[in-house]
Design a protein that fits this description.
single chain; about 325 residues; 7 helices; Rpf2; Ribosome production factor 2 homolog
């Protein structure tokens, strides 16, 4: 039976609180690993990926013989490294005769392998093979745009999964607002065929357009490559259900008796209690009655004056 160890120091408690599940998760850290054998292409790509994600990635340069993500029992080392580094997404590079220039991209949930997708690298171009003005070079840690073009990302299951994994890999921290001047890079993914995707990294160049919104030009700065899908493994249904579960303390709580209509907008229902009108004392402020009372007073005054004048005549 495993012993449950509780933190005894304040630092250990803070570390556990930082790793605990949150309603709004922070950016996912990436774990970069080498297989038993890697080619120059794979090693170059892993190094450049580490530079692009500097500050949000951890790279191990030692060869790992025990990691075989698609085989039973080959996930133990991955789960150990994930728990040790608190990384929720990993990139594993290897090279064999059967699968040359191979990459395995995967996501973790609760330090368990959530899903996997294996791709091969073709037509790789490194950062050094591109010439451009260094003034527009993207800054480290900047927020990127991610563009997916092609119907395959909506229709093909493997491309859908690759789209989700690449989004988690490159998007970084989740934010609500962005400063346009701070967005200086974009990742462009184009679906060439049902099993092939072109991926490139571009810098954004802002130019005058005559309006408030500037005109944006893409300058390819690398790396760029073709990703060929080889194998994939979808998440287990029970694990997927558990990962998609949200807390009941979600701040976006449904408001009672309020509905949102596309045409009429926000509408609400108000429930008024039963009003016992027959028991209420109504104040009489009608103008008609005031006029009648005023006319009655004038008539009484006129009659009093007439009677007084008649009495004066009789006495005379």
């Amino acid at each position: 039976m495993n012993e449950i160890r509780t933190p005894k120091t304040g630092k250990a408690k803070r570390v556990l609180e930082k790793r605990a599940p949150k309603l709004v998760e922070t950016g996912k850290k990436t774990l970069i690993l080498h297989g038993t054998k890697t080619s120059a292409t794979v090693s170059s790509f892993l190094m450049e990926l580490y530079r692009l994600k500097k500050g949000g990635a951890i790279k191990y340069s030692r060869r790992n013989e025990n990691i075989r993500p698609f085989e039973a029992g080959g996930e133990t080392s991955l789960e150990f490294f994930s728990q040790k580094t608190d990384c929720s997404i990993f990139v594993y590079g290897s090279h064999t005769k059967k699968r040359p220039d191979n990459l395995v991209l995967g996501r973790m949930y609760d330090h368990q392998v959530y899903d996997l997708i294996e791709v091969g690298i073709e037509n790789f171009k490194s950062l050094l093979s591109f010439s451009y003005d260094k003034k527009i070079a993207p800054h480290e840690g900047s927020k990127p745009f991610i563009c997916f073009t092609g119907e395959g990302f909506e229709n093909v299951q493997e491309l859908k999964q690759l789209k989700e994994v690449l989004t988690d890999l490159f998007r970084g921290e989740v934010v609500d607002n962005l400063n346009l001047t701070g967005v200086d890079r974009a990742y462009v993914c184009s679906a060439i065929s049902p099993d092939k995707v072109f991926l490139t990294h571009c810098a954004l160049k802002l130019k005058k357009s005559g309006t408030i919104v500037p005109r944006i030009e893409l300058v390819e700065v690398g790396p760029s490559m073709d990703l060929v899908i080889r194998r994939n493994r979808l998440p287990n249904e029970s694990l997927k259900k558990e990962a998609m579960r949200t807390s009941k303390d979600n701040p976006k709580k449904k408001v009672k008796n309020v509905v949102q209509d596309a045409v009429l907008g926000k509408q609400g229902k108000i429930y008024v209690p039963d009003q016992k009108i027959e028991e209420m004392q109504l104040v009489d402020k009608s103008k008609g009655l005031k006029r009648e009372r005023k006319e009655a007073k004038l008539k009484q005054k006129e009659e009093a004056e007439e009677t007084a004048s008649k009495k004066n005549k009789v006495s005379a």
